[in-house]
Amino acid sequence: MPIPEVPRETEAKLRDYLALLIRWNQRINLVAKAEPELLWQRHILDSAQLAPLLPKGEPIVDLGSGAGFPGLVLAVLTGREVHLIESDQRKCAFLREAARLLGLDRVTIHALRIEAAPSLGAAIVTARALAPLADLLPHAHRLLRPGGIALFPKGRTAEQELTAASPHWTMQIERFTSSTDPHSTIFRLSEIHPVSAQA
Q: What percentage of the chain exceeds 70 in pLDDT?
């Protein structure tokens, strides 16, 4: 399945990324093994759908990047500055090789835990399949600059995660239905503050 309104060269670059992922996945566990087109749908397309929800031109900080979803996909699609934060050294080696192969010279890999990451004055924070919303919000609050947003794709437990986080956090919430799974939701969050700070 092609990505709508994406130049052929950009889609070819994403196919190269997927091919590299499949090769490396035979040696280290990056994603669950599956047929290429299922991986394309499950990871590439699922990440690509975040691109239209991004503010224009701003750098991205991707938390717990793993195999590069969504951070590397968004770097390919947008050409903007992207910081990938990943503590697993083997996954960082893959991310470096992928960024080199794809010519992504505006991508920086930070091989450290999220708690140790510098603030980077992030305008946009992303995280996919990393942790419950209640665990992501403290990181977003620390890393985002004023006016920044967080984009968090969530599965079928999206509303339960939001309910669990609500007693402790206030935020502006926008919801978007996932184009790859009608039962999943993408949260676009802004004005994230701990409840104690509002008292």
A: 96
